[in-house]
């Protein structure tokens, strides 16, 4: 009888154990139990920062590791000197008060969406102008609590950050825009920010910017000291290179074309006053409009930019072409006045010669006086020979000059001014291009190195 009851009890125990092992454990319920256990009322105080490195609050600062994923850069504004980014920002620290049982690895981590439930570092972006969180469809934020007490905070944010720019080489420049993160209230005795080891900054592949190229980025530390203490700070320097092809097509080539069009007036007839005036004034106004449009998109700075040198010289060339026509017009009127004076003088000489001939005829017919013949050089006279040699020396033709012989083909001064301008203006503009591009391209390479 005893054996029978023993056997029944053993069978019942085996069945009970088998049924219990076949029942699935609801780990979502276990998560609730764990959260209630570690974050329940009177169990956890989010106002108290986690313990330091060696386990006590007073012995060391809380270390927070930072990393982020750069999703996009929407714009870089030269006028306001700012840029806009969207990033996934992550912080990770150790809070031993949040340790829990992982049930043999079944609970990898606990997830929260309310940042107020746990202690959070008081990090802020020191060069931020504007910023907002993303709440579509749900708030893009989560907090993961791992079994050993590590906390991971991740959030997607959009920021507009200030970026002081040096535009001396614009548009051949490179700009460094920083992203600075610092503690607002906790000093380095209580809170320290560190970059996460490995790859603290990640950038989305195929990052596209309209007028810039992200060449590289550098991570660094920027701790600041104030009257209230030293505060931990991290920064990322983003190095942007401006795309020059846009400015070459939109600014440099049109300015060159306007300068060349202004030279067309050198090839027009001097009498075509309306055509030359309208051409000069039109190119000058167009160049002035182009310059004002360029300056409207840039901030008023106290130094001279590379684009200012280019537009200023191009405007000077166009204005010089207009002044050249004024000089040609004045020289043309002067040539006409000189030609009229020569005609009047020639007419007076002819009239005077005619009157002298008439007078001489009257004298020959009315008087019998004899006049002495002009002196004839006698052979062997040394004084006469010396005078002849001096006259021959003075009457020798001047040495041929290619420039003078070429300019002699154009009898009027106004025509000579036009011909000289046809050669001088292009040569000087070509020389300016050589100096300009060599100077600014070398300066760009020097700053890059």
What's the SSE blueprint?
Elements: H1 2-22, H2 27-39, E1 62-77, E2 82-94, E3 110-112, E4 123-125, E5 128-133, E6 141-145, E7 150-162, E8 174-183, E9 191-195, E10 201-203, E11 212-221, E12 224-226, E13 229-231, E14 233-242, H3 244-262, H4 273-296, H5 306-366, H6 382-394, H7 402-407, H8 413-448
Parallel strand pairs: 1-9, 1-10
Antiparallel strand pairs: 1-2, 2-7, 3-6, 4-8, 5-7, 6-7, 8-14, 11-14, 12-13
Task: Give structural notes.
There is one protein chain. The protein is α+β, with helices and mostly antiparallel strands and 449 residues long. Helices cover 43% and strands 23% of the residues. It has helices at 2-22, 27-39, 244-262, 273-296, 306-366, 382-394, 402-407, 413-448, and strands at residues 62-77, 82-94, 110-112, 123-125, 128-133, 141-145, 150-162, 174-183, 191-195, 201-203, 212-221, 224-226, 229-231, 233-242. The strands form three sheets. Strands 1, 2, 3, 5, 6, 7, 9 and 10 form an eight-stranded mixed beta sheet that branches. Strand 1 (62-77) and strand 2 (82-94) form a beta hairpin. Helix 3 packs antiparallel against helix 4, helix 3 packs parallel to helix 5 (306-366) and helix 4 (273-296) packs antiparallel against helix 5. The longest helix is centred in the last third of the chain and has 61 residues, at 306-366. It is rod-shaped and about 165 Å long. Residues 17-23 and 369-377 have low confidence and may be disordered.
